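Input record (one chain):
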Amino acid sequence: MRAIDVVHKLAPSALDDYLAAFDGGDTQLDAAGVSTPLRLAHFLAQVMHESGGLTIRRESGKYSASRIMEIFGVNVHSAAVTKSEAAKLAGDGPALFERVYGLGNPRKAKELGNINPGDGWKYRGNGILQTTGRANHREMGERCKLGNLFEVSPDQVTSAQHALKPALAEWVAGNCNDLADKNDIRSITKKINGGYNGYEDRINWFNKIWKL
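The corresponding structure, as predicted from the sequence alone:
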């Protein structure tokens, strides 16, 4: 089964650009080694989780205070957002991402290569595998032989022409095909997410895909 067939069956609300990317993406998938049913199922499971069934272009940041604490709170994330901060940041994506990804969190900003005010918002989660950070946008552009395109124009990450490219570059860089061959969804999740956020949902997506 082609990837686009899976998308049509399981992602009825997929964005048009993503549909176009997958409809013309067989060659890209093959070139990245996503060429067996098991590898494709694992790749799509991660994609479906990260992109909300291919409905999300950019991380919105419109989180409630309680959700902010779950993701970015003390003893959870390097940002160590407090309850009082979370109450102020709730629903304010630009302020939240500057606090947790940008200069408001020097440790994470350094990790992500976010060096300028506003980088936390500009380079928030992006595309079908939610590429995050200035440095990662630059790296994915270079891996895709597109120079600094994604760093200069982050919206290109979700375009029909390019949407699959950074996701597959990240997949290959993480040696995820080998992990897929071992059916090791936990390790794949760690490579893609950096942790295990949404792990059960990723498993659920995999099971749905594998049954097709």
